[in-house]
Amino acid sequence: MQLLDAGSTDEWAATFTEDGVFEVGDSAVHGSQDIARAARKVADEFAAAGVQRRHWIGMLTVTPGDDGELTARSYALVLEIPTGGEVVVRRSTVCTDRLVSSDGQWRVKHRRVTRDGLDPA
Amino acid sequence: MQLLDAGSTDEWAATFTEDGVFEVGDSAVHGSQDIARAARKVADEFAAAGVQRRHWIGMLTVTPGDDGELTARSYALVLEIPTGGEVVVRRSTVCTDRLVSSDGQWRVKHRRVTRDGLDPA
Amino acid sequence: MQLLDAGSTDEWAATFTEDGVFEVGDSAVHGSQDIARAARKVADEFAAAGVQRRHWIGMLTVTPGDDGELTARSYALVLEIPTGGEVVVRRSTVCTDRLVSSDGQWRVKHRRVTRDGLDPA
């Protein structure tokens, strides 16, 4: 998420598998290329508005599956800080990742984000 | 705290010893059964009000005692997110736990929570 | 940072090397003695105002250098809680530390803090 906050959207999208899925609420983006494109668009909008985003991950639990995959569940908090302005705690979410290992690196095969107050848990 | 946030109050209370004490400010609940009951009541109130709570634990330090116990000190932040509403950072606290091990599991024998701005440190 | 939040400014400043540098935005304090002095002044002001500060460190990455030093990068969030008042998320920052080891202890040789919305990243 530090990569995303720094505007390095391609590097961030590369933490997904090529066929990775990124689900937020009831919409989903399929494939790391489309995930990169969507992230770029949002990053450009925040940059144009002069707003720094900060994603905080915490309260992590990791559960190994039978198939060599991992399920990682965390809370994620999204902060927004406009140039010259106050910190806004924009969003509290729960993030559930299914992670697979290839070439010695863990990548996100499926990420599901539920936004507190918006999405059904 | 994820259990508590999910409304699984019995499972959460089971992280205390049977004779565990939960102290907040100058009030205390004694015994995991009463802790469970009190947590259930609060959880039901938040559920009825349509408010999701999120407890964040951070800045953890763990100190072993001479007696095989551990003292765990952490900051804990309580967020509240009403359905359709904004994130509220409701409370900043310091949590001091005395943990004992039995049957290969650490449980809370004594938890003391001081609420910043309310309770003397 | 727990030491700083507790008002133990000398103990906190001792986590810097004697010639350590603490840079925030475009101002810098040189030497752990001056860092201690500056911290004491700020801590006294907050105490006089009845405001509890809480520094949260998260999203830590640690990178070893060729020279035996470590670079630690983290997000740091500063909360302020006035007596009887609400939690204020005062500041979101990125903290970059260069750490050196001596006498079996890691100390900060150089800390650079950039404040989101105020300082150029």
Automatic annotation (TrEMBL), chains A, B, C:
<dbReference type="Pfam" id="PF13577">
    <property type="entry name" value="SnoaL_4"/>
</dbReference>
<dbReference type="InterPro" id="IPR037401">
    <property type="entry name" value="SnoaL-like"/>
</dbReference>
<protein>
    <submittedName>
        <fullName>Nuclear transport factor 2 family protein</fullName>
    </submittedName>
</protein>
<dbReference type="InterPro" id="IPR032710">
    <property type="entry name" value="NTF2-like_dom_sf"/>
</dbReference>
<feature type="domain" description="SnoaL-like">
    <location>
        <begin position="1"/>
        <end position="112"/>
    </location>
</feature>
